[in-house]
Amino acid sequence: MTDPANEKVRVVVVDDSAAMRALLTKLLNHDPLIEVVGQAPEPHAAREMIKALNPDVVTLDVEMPGMDGLSFLERIMRLRPMPVVMCSTLTARGTEATIEALRLGAVDCIAKPSGNPLEIAQDGALLRKMVRTAARSSVRAAAVRPAAPHSGHGAATPAPSAGPLRDVVIAIGASTGGVEALFSIIGALPVDCPPVLVVQHMPAIFTGGFAARLDREARVTVVEAKDGMTLKRGTVYLAPGGSHHMELVGGTSGHVRLIEGEPVSGHRPSVDVLFRSVSALGSRAVGVILTGMGSDGAEGLLQMRAAGARTMGQSRDTCVVYGMPRAAFERGAVEKEVNLSALPEAILGACRR
């Protein structure tokens, strides 16, 4: 894999629109350490181009004629795993497809650049950052991806060793690669689990659809958080993307507070902001930091651990990007690192008496 810190990241752009291919190429080539080596109008041409050029990253349109982007992505992740960044139109169908793409193993997603020149320039900067991050990611074959053990709401069958779950709050932070990890974890939670607060770095247009998709596939109820929501057992509260941070106010039966503010640790919503608010619960909290670029959440998790909370991080081997968990581990914030497949039981174990 090319190290973008030393060599150019080689990219193949796949989109059925010639104008969009040209725009994406222009935006990516603006970075001297990124080089678009090929453009393909549809998946069949892209497949041959990938074989011939062996790129580091592929940008892939979600909705295309013929073989759609999702079908092509599934084949890539099954037969030739590699970093893929999805480009989506701002439609309900496009949003749903993007969430599925992230579940299948796409590293990240971005809305197709649009608007005035300033907005397009901002989109281009974000796209370049995503591609550089993708080039450093660790992508696994689809065949070894953990699958959610249950689909739809219903009574959970506790494990034989399961004991009563304490009156606690679970706080989870994630970024790049987090969608796949959250499907695995939240899909394994029982209906009586303590309330869960989640910050996943994701554009605002996707968080509502992500919450709805998780809700359909999990035993627990999953909602996009709104200001003032009271915490309930068996409910997961996903921070909305955009201009607000998410905090916990009150005890284990407190409520969600959404606050405006500048980015913290480079993000809004910020994992650090959530973790710091949950640290007030002391030993009645469990903190989990998942795959992601950067260090958001490390200081907040350290504060949680110092207050008596149980804390854990996703293991290096199962992270798409071992950035946030590494930063937290190196600061002493992580009590133990756990493989993704074992995280659900580890989280529940920390919640039991």
TrEMBL record:
Signal peptide: none
Entry annotation: catalytic residues: 175, 201, 296
Keyword Cytoplasm: yes
Keyword NADP attributed: no
EC number per UniProt: 3.1.1.61, 3.5.1.44
Gene3D superfamilies, alphabetized: 3.40.50.2300, Methylesterase CheB, C-terminal domain
Modified residues (4-aspartylphosphate): 61
Stored InterPro entries: CheB-like, CheB_C, CheY-like_superfamily, Sig_transdc_resp-reg_Me-estase, Sig_transdc_resp-reg_receiver
PANTHER family: PROTEIN-GLUTAMATE METHYLESTERASE/PROTEIN-GLUTAMINE GLUTAMINASE (PTHR42872), PROTEIN-GLUTAMATE METHYLESTERASE_PROTEIN-GLUTAMINE GLUTAMINASE (PTHR42872:SF6)
Known function: Involved in chemotaxis. Part of a chemotaxis signal transduction system that modulates chemotaxis in response to various stimuli. Catalyzes the demethylation of specific methylglutamate residues introduced into the chemoreceptors (methyl-accepting chemotaxis proteins or MCP) by CheR. Also mediates the irreversible deamidation of specific glutamine residues to glutamic acid.
Name the UniProt record assigns to this protein: Protein-glutamate methylesterase/protein-glutamine glutaminase
Species the sequence originates in: Novosphingobium clariflavum
